[in-house]
Design brief:
The protein is built from 13 helices and 10 strands. The chain is an alpha+beta fold and about 375 residues long. Helix 2 crosses helix 3 and helix 9 packs antiparallel against helix 10.
Length: about 375
């Protein structure tokens, strides 16, 4: 039986100071629930340390203490990603408080019940992935016994006791920073509709031949390649003002409010990967248009078009749709053609002015049918050399 807390009380109460002496780890009695075997003693000790509270409530008791119906409590727990546990006494005071807070937001009219469930789901999905990553990539390596004869128990408990408050504070800091950035983007929207359905540049970057690589490479080697790709992509997207929406192993999805920003990110990705001999070739597709945002993800025809453009893009190249090309032209980041650029330069020279400085070049490609989206005319995006 696995029961997780809502996270609202993590680290609120720290366990006693402990060194590497196993005797310093507090004793936690094995608990029986519905005739099932008790949890591993170390797992119970770590759970109590992380949650900062003892198991006290069954789900029914927790819902009653929070003043919410069992049906609503179950919806919240499932939305956060926690399994049904019958009537095991496995919940804590922090679970009750989290239920009370969510229900209170609904009662106060600040959130609808459906929105409160969405808040629970988005928080649960995001933190679940974060927790899995931290355990798999961080704590697993650190909890290897440093000396022969030491048990994992003697290392894990005091290590987590030291890390927990620091990681918790860092998590809150990053969340506040991200919330401030997201709020700033929303309040700058032109109208209320644009806050939900916004015009964005959406890009997909896809490693070429990844399926073949999975057959040739060892699992550990493949994992390192994917991690390097995701890390490089995430850093480049963030550094140049975009937002990483999600990673899908061999593919990343990102967005930007400005077409010029998206173009720069895409070309930087191509250039960076091309200079890394360990990386496969890359192809990128970008589309510009209305996008619906939900729970940190993006949806709509624009996203689908970006995905289709990626699938037909040449290796180490960027394909964009007509709307994206028009936006680059409108903002002065790219000329409609080299002939237009030459005319603009000649006119500027005649007037004794500086000629336009275009960052990007666009080359129209053959029109082609794209499954589910009709006929599109993609443009090949490149850097423009003077």
């Amino acid at each position: 039986m696995t029961v997780d807390d809502t996270g609202s009380g993590a680290g609120a109460q720290r366990g006693p100071e402990a060194g590497t002496d196993a005797s310093a780890i507090p004793e936690v009695e094995d608990e029986k629930a519905d005739g099932e075997s008790a949890k591993n003693p170390l797992a119970l000790q770590l759970e109590q340390l992380i949650l900062g509270a003892d198991r006290r409530y069954t789900p029914f008791q927790a819902a009653r203490s929070a003043g919410v119906s069992m049906e609503l409590a179950s919806r919240f727990w499932r939305a956060m990603g926690f399994p049904d546990i019958g009537q095991a006494k496995a919940l804590t005071e922090a679970d009750v408080l989290a239920l009370r807070r969510l229900a209170g937001l609904v009662e106060a009219g600040l959130l609808s019940e459906a929105m409160a469930v969405q808040v629970a789901r988005s928080t649960g999905q995001t933190t679940a992935r974060l927790a899995e990553w931290q355990i798999d990539s961080f704590l697993e390596g650190l909890t290897e016994p440093p000396e022969p004869g030491m048990t994992r128990t003697e290392v894990t408990y005091p290590l987590i006791e030291l890390l927990l408050p620091e990681l918790e504070e860092f998590l809150v800091y990053v969340w506040r920073r991200q919330l401030a950035a997201a709020t700033g983007r929303v309040v700058q929207a032109a109208d209320d509709e644009e806050m939900v359905d916004r015009r964005l540049a959406v890009g997909f970057a896809d490693l070429v031949g990844f399926t073949r690589l999975t057959r040739r490479m060892e699992e550990e080697e493949l994992g390192e390649l994917v991690e390097a790709f995701e890390t490089t992509a995430a850093d480049l997207v963030a550094a140049h003002g975009g937002r990483l929406i999600k990673t899908l192993g061999d593919e990343v999805l990102y967005a930007a409010d400005d077409a010029g920003v998206a173009a720069e990110i895409s070309l930087r990705l191509i250039e960076t990967m091309a200079n890394d001999e360990t990386m496969p070739e890359l192809r990128v597709g970008i589309a510009f248009g209305t996008v619906t945002t939900r729970m940190g993800d993006v949806f709509g025809t624009t996203v689908n078009l970006a995905s289709r453009l990626t699938s037909i893009a040449p290796r180490d190249a960027v394909l964009v749709d007509g709307a994206f090309a028009e936006e680059l032209m409108r903002t002065g980041d790219a000329p409609a053609s080299e002939a237009q650029a030459a005319e603009a330069a000649a006119a500027a020279e005649k007037e004794g002015e500086e000629p336009p400085s275009y960052r990007f070049a666009l080359q129209p490609m053959w029109q082609r049918p794209v499954r589910g989206l009709g006929v599109v005319e993609p443009w090949l995006l490149a850097r423009r050399t003077p």
